[in-house]
């Protein structure tokens, strides 16, 4: 089902020049109400309309008719779609069919139909709007293109609306049309572009205090979700949800609740996902909202996870019935993948197999195909048909990698977060079938490709000789993988590869949060229980037999990137820091660790940057920054130092970075899942 946000669609200001004569009181009330909807709330606009209509009585004045139509439009915003539809569908008197009022009626009619899932009829009406405005009402052409661009998510129409609005001097419509690109790019799968243009447009919408700003924040959050940056996604979607509640717009709230459920699910918060999906289903059902089938599909997914198979079947069958009725075939395929999961859980393997094969054969969208290939892998793994399982998992991985190749490099780190279930499932399968080294190679797929691209090096090698890499590094390598069901650490030495199972990601993250609180209170010591627990969980099983003074290289995953492994506490024979036993270093990938080092003919050169003045109130000065600069610099006779006020982005970028072997920063830093 096409993801849809009403906020911008409904709130259209009048384009073109003001009337040369003073408007009638009914026209003035109409303009005032539209401004109230645009800058305040639908309820405020409806109150203005109701008061005006009470005074107007049974008048057949053109602007009284416009007020009656706008009342129906506002009620649709509040979820009264069935009540509004017949009013907006009623043709206007012949005298008004080539006026602004007709364009407004068609706008309201199109958005109500679209909201009720009748997308084709709605788009046909916007075609009629563009034709009418082009021929008879040129002052409304920008609005007509805006509306059609909104429903068709057509970039050409949206840019036509921007151009015409600017030409007419309608800065508000131009700004809102630019914001419409965010939603269009999101629906077209151009998520990085949606995030970037959203970051430019949203401040302008908020500064202008436009009610549609919350909707655009939600669209930005949805794009972050598809890029795998769940923290940012939750932040922006919550802003969309808060705006929908504040405006009391029933048409928008189910959308943001449903997407918030997606974020909770991706972050392994099953209870949060169930709450959000459940509330989305209630609102959508109460208002006959087009989000209902998707909310039902998602509730089915939660029920399968909980083993509530009867409830799951009830949800998914209703979702497929509704989507099929409206011919929403992409959503039907998505729901069928979920139904196949239900059949696997019910051990109806033949039914599940046919379902998934049909989705693969008919879907043009890579995401349903990816999920279906993953589902077939799970199905065959459950049946112990390991060769078939491996084949379909590999196809899914290829689809994920190919799709990721279309995404701008800055966002490729986090793209794999959005398909992490595929990697989790495949890694679990390989471990269960004793393919330990191949499982390690698959974890590298989600790390090495982006890193090698970012560093402009050759693509990661097909065959990973992990023991040779450990021998070359003269180290024991610990490579981590945090999974939904179980996590792993591979121990790689010159003699071979072994694996140890760890708790699920959510349990490890809970301990990491406790550890973070201890650090924030400055109370970390050798006697700290959480430091000892993390060592026992993460390191102890993997480093048995490692001699004191050995080199240990950590390849972290997920939240482990934020853990200082050196500060873990070894409990025996007496509690002490792990750094007292071994030399701990970190790398991002086995592939990069295995790259041959360049032969040095001279001493390495250092670029040393830091000890800057306070640049942000949130980050105070680092008390030992100057001392660290001195200590690091003492090891490099060949160096360039950018310190204090001289440590600026401009100076850094102008430092001919390629001439340095080492770059060391002494500064605050923030890591995000989008760019870890």
Architecture overview:
This protein has 676 residues and is of the alpha/beta class. Among the domains are: 1-248, Tetratricopeptide repeat domain (Serine Threonine Protein Phosphatase 5, Tetratricopeptide repeat); 466-593; 605-666, no CATH class. It is 59% helix and 8% strand. The chain has a five-stranded mixed sheet with strand order 3-2-1-4-7, sandwiched between helices. The chain has a three-stranded parallel sheet with strand order 9-8-10, covered by helices on one side. α30 links the parallel β8 (605-610) and β9 (638-643). The radius of gyration is 29 Å and the shape is globular.
What features would you highlight for this structure?
676 residues, five-stranded mixed sheet, 59% helix, Serine Threonine Protein Phosphatase 5, Tetratricopeptide repeat, disordered N terminus, alpha/beta, 8% strand
Topology summary:
Layout: H1 7-10, H2 25-39, H3 42-56, H4 62-77, H5 81-89, H6 100-115, H7 119-135, H8 141-152, H9 155-167, H10 171-187, H11 191-207, H12 213-226, H13 230-247, H14 253-266, H15 270-286, H16 292-305, H17 309-325, H18 329-345, H19 349-362, H20 366-382, H21 386-404, H22 412-415, H23 420-432, H24 436-445, H25 448-454, H26 466-473, E1 476-481, E2 487-493, E3 496-502, H27 505-520, H28 529-539, E4 551-555, E5 569-570, E6 576-577, E7 583-587, H29 590-593, E8 605-610, H30 625-633, E9 638-643, H31 649-653, E10 662-666
Parallel strand pairs: 1-4, 4-7, 8-9, 8-10
Antiparallel strand pairs: 1-2, 2-3, 5-6
Helix pairs in contact: 2-3, 2-4, 3-4, 4-5, 4-6, 5-6, 6-7, 6-8, 7-8, 8-9, 8-10, 9-10, 10-11, 10-12, 11-12, 12-13, 13-14, 14-15, 14-16, 15-16, 16-17, 16-18, 17-18, 18-19, 18-20, 19-20, 20-21, 20-23, 21-23, 23-24, 27-28
